Amino acid sequence: MAAGSILRHMKLKIITLIAALTTATITPLAAADCEITCVDVYTQDGQLIFEARKGSGPKASVAVKPKTIAKPKAKVVAKPKVVLKPPLISKPKGIAKPKMAVPKKKIAPKKIAPVAVAATSLSDRISKSLPTAGISYQPNFQPLINVPVYFWSDVPTLFRSKVDLIGESIDVAMRPSFTWSFGDGSFATTTDPGGPYPDGRITHVYSNPGTYPVVLITTWGGSFTHNSIERAITGQIKKSSALSITLVAASNRFMN
């Protein structure tokens, strides 16, 4: 083969190999099937759900059928010959024929129906509720308009829980965020629970006297740890709290 033909043939092989590699799809590894342990934590209907499952269970086994024992055949005993004594002696009476020995029949054991063995797997599930926030404000008696009102919530900034399911330990850490609605169209979103005067950071100033509905929505989210592996909890939990606050106007006094 000529040198030019050999080079063209090699280039064609290289191009074909590159095309095959670029178009090949990589199959991801199959997900583990819970033969060891599967653990999950998620939210549902305002609850924190813990689930654990261990073992996929063996296939159902079937009992072996016993073999049927064949009935033995009865053996026939040969008839004995009659022996005659010499003449002048009366003939002896005939010898009774022996009875044939009939073996007893063996009763075959009853057939045992196949028995399915239940799969060996363990699973458990529990639910937990998170704390609902209470609302406080200061001054708590006849707060004035045009003066800052301090708000705060009494929920912890970190909620921890440890659960044991089917021998597996699950640690959960949840943190809240807060959305305040002050009732006059103003909103505030923060991760700070607030506090009383003078260190509190959640304040609001009302311009007009009246009664206002204050609503606090607490949103919980977090992660769980199992076998030193941390994973995010699927979903969030929202809890709401409300109260009403009445603002008053200060009386004016003119002095010389």
Radius of gyration: 46 Å
User: What is the CATH architecture descriptor of one domain?
Assistant: Sandwich
Helix count equals 1
In percent, how helical is the residue content?
A: under 10%
CATH topology of one domain: Immunoglobulin-like
What is the rounded distance between the termini?
120 Å
Q: In CATH, what is the class of one domain?
A: Mainly Beta
Determine the mean pLDDT: 78
Main sheet properties: 6 strands, antiparallel
Low-confidence stretches: 14-33, 58-64
Strand proportion, as a percent range, falls in 35-45%
- Quantity of strands, as a count: 12
- Helix vs. strand class: mainly beta
CATH homology superfamily of one domain: Immunoglobulins
What is the N-to-C order of secondary-structure elements (H for helix, E for strand)?
HEEEEEEEEEEEE
Gross morphology is: rod-shaped
Quick summary of this structure?
Strand 7 (168-181) and strand 8 form a beta hairpin. The chain is mainly β and 256 residues long.
Can you walk through the features of this model?
The chain is mainly β and 256 residues long. The chain has a domain at 130-247: Sandwich (Immunoglobulin-like). The protein is built from one helix and twelve strands. A hairpin with a 2-residue loop joins strand 10 and strand 11 (229-232). The longest helix is centred in the N-terminal third of the chain and has 21 residues, at 3-23.
Q: Keywords for this structure?
A:
256 residues, mainly beta, Immunoglobulin-like, six-stranded antiparallel β-sheet, 1 helix, 8% helix, 35% strand
